Amino acid sequence: MDAPVRVLFIGALGRSGTTLIERLLGELPGTASLGEVVHLWERGAGAGEKCGCGVPFPECPFWGKVGELAFGGWDSFDLAEFRRAKDSVDRTRHIPALSRGELPDDLREPLAAYVRYYERLYDAVRQVSGARLLIDSSKHASLAFCLRSAASAGRLDLRVAHVLRDSRGVAQSWAKEIRRPEATEASPEQYMARWSPHKVAMHWNAANGAFALLGRRGVPVRTVRYEEFLADPRGTLRGIAEFAGLPVADGDLAFLEDDHATLSANHTASGNPMRFTTGRVELRRDDAWRERMPPARRRAVTALTLPLLRHYGYV
Q1: Under DSSP, is residue 285 helix (H, G, I), strand (E, B) or coil?
Q2: Could you tell me where the DSSP H helices lie in 30-186?
Q3: 0.90 surpassed by pTM
Q4: For residue 251, what pLDDT is reported?
């Protein structure tokens, strides 16, 4: 690569509003919105699920060009080898080791091999799209810590937008049954995962704590509360973009109003079903948990996440 690829990594626990934020960022000139790249390999290259443009991944011209540049074509991509590399390092339990200055010997080589897949993909996307900023909404903290090694070596210009949403709203969202419209017979998941309130609370604490740690380890991290984003979408979006090194002119935000946005088609590889939405999208808070979440569940999630709820100003 001639220069480090600039990547804005959107980190969060799922169901925190990241797809909407990613889609809006992807409307800005000079950006390429990729969706959840962490799932591209299995769901796109492996299962042939639909790209955000509506075309099955293997038939999408954009991703076809990216695969050709990065790996000599997706037919040449070795998914089994990728899985072995991923399973060796991209795990929450490895975050303490990945956060240290010196990696253990058993992680050093697998990590380099794993991160190289992302470096090659990002560089190919930059060449095909011509974008100055790539947006990866993979969310997983463990992947962000893996990519930190490439950033520390100067091979990636990594910035992280840590998106935060009230734990009670996140728990309510995880309780919904949502079919994945892009799923094929080969897809590992036909429905979006559902978690219990206790599991959501545990992962909410872990994910938000991990991104706070990532910031203390030298990676530029900007925390964005989803509720504040909806209160001031234009100002918040401008702030995220400028944090990522992308200046925004007033005319660049013509697609965005205080209460709605107009979205165009995209090439997101995986993510929330909202990635298929085009045209007018309303921007409004979803506080259904205040009325619909059973009181016992609400009290449990509040109690389990109370320290961080207080830290981030939710209580």
Answers
A1: coil
A2: 37-39, 61-71, 79-89, 95-98, 105-129, 141-152, 167-174
A3: yes
A4: 96
